[in-house]
Amino acid sequence: MAASGSQAGGRRDGLVDLVGGEETPISRRRAGVLAVVALVGFGLGLDGVRDLGPPYLDDSFVAARFDAFSSYEDETQVLFIGNSRVNHHIDPALIDAAFAEAGYPVRSFNFGVGAMNAIETSYVLEEVFDEASPRYVVLDPGDLRTRPRGRNAESERFIRWHDLRRTHWVWEHFYASIENDERRALYFEPHLRAFWYRTFNIGRGPRMLGAAFRQWCAWSIDLTGCGPALRYRDHVAHLRSTRGFVGLHDEVGVKEFFEPGALEQVQKNRDAFEEIPEQAMRRVRRGLELRRKKKQEVLPALGRDVLSRVHDQSEEAGTVLTILLNPRPDNNADYVYRAAEVGLVPRLVDYGDPNEHPDFYDPKYRFEASHLDQRATSLFAKKLVTDLLQIWSNP
């Protein structure tokens, strides 16, 4: 029988010597490996909790589109991404019909979500490319405003895009554009908090449990109090049937999937526009023409970061990227023109000039000052498809 000392000695080689108090090199190496394994495991656990958790219902507008798009990702050749102007102006049924009439049958999908800013469009595109590779992406990057409105800073949608890369973009943007340190810190605080929440899943437990219950009661049974979850389910079903399109109707009340606050704001904008449509559109035209004449001579770093990123993402995916400026583009969207001059926007479809596209700024085609009426979507689809085919035919 072998001496027990050799067995014990073998074990002691990897532990602190309890007599002499010395640690062997093998022990340090093992401790380092265990620390790395623990850290990696902790990180993967956090990431797994985030990925496995159900979407928060205040994320319904973005999450619902991902849910609807997953049904079509293998069929979609043309994907539109952007804010409410994409959402409400581009009807895939009309777009596909116009492409087919021109001899190019395609399947398109609308991934427009209200108030999507430039940074969020780059994140959505990244998420899309993880699952699908549409042949063409038409992206309205929106503006460079980053400050969340109201309780948006607490929403999953806001938290979701705050990875390290994009949080750093925001800090660089504030550092370059705000001189006052106190104000800079004040503006950056919700972004830092969102990055912290996203990275470590802070405070997610109660929300996950609540969302899990709402998901369960929406898909399994119909219980009183499940209204938000049922609206989410109905919203996903609507997006699947329209391939992401949500039209703006004169009867605003038909958009029952809107949150009450958003619905009231839409109605308020509509009522104000109906009182003085001609005056409102003259003001829009003057503002756009003035901004076009006084466009920024220096491309903001944030605009360069976003457009460089979406350009690189598209090239890596083998996708043809086209930048779109909808009728009445977002305020502060002039950085797109400067980016085009320095080669960051190789393909641009621009409807931001009222003099070049007067029909899209005619009150009879407007829902209100910011959006085209649903009656104009057919006119817009034909013009957009014609211009896209012309751009795509020229390498």
Pick out its properties.
disordered N terminus; alpha/beta; Rossmann fold; single chain; 56% helix
How would you characterize this protein structure?
With 395 residues, the chain is of the alpha/beta class. It has one domain (61-392): 3-Layer(aba) Sandwich (Rossmann fold). The chain is built from 16 helices and seven strands. The strands form two sheets. Strands 2-1-3-4-5 form a five-stranded parallel beta sheet, with helices on both faces. The N and C termini lie far apart (81 Å).
Sequence-ordered SSE layout with sheet pairings:
Layout: H1 4-12, H2 25-52, H3 60-69, E1 78-82, H4 84-89, H5 92-101, E2 108-112, H6 118-131, E3 136-139, H7 156-160, H8 164-177, H9 181-200, H10 204-219, H11 227-242, H12 260-275, H13 277-293, H14 301-317, E4 320-325, H15 335-341, E5 348-350, E6 366-368, E7 371-372, H16 377-392
Parallel strand pairs: 1-2, 1-3, 3-4, 4-5
Antiparallel strand pairs: 6-7
Helix pairs in contact: 3-11, 5-16, 6-14, 8-9, 10-11
- N-C termini distance: 81 Å
Strand content: 5-15%
Order of helices and strands: HHHEHHEHEHHHHHHHHEHEEEH
Low-confidence stretches: 1-20, 51-57
CATH topology: Rossmann fold
Query: How many whole angstroms does the radius of gyration measure?
Result: 26 Å
CATH homology superfamily: SGNH hydrolase
Number of strands: 7
SSE-based structural type: alpha/beta
Fraction in helix: 55-70%
What's the CATH first level?
Alpha Beta
Main β-sheet description: 5 strands, parallel
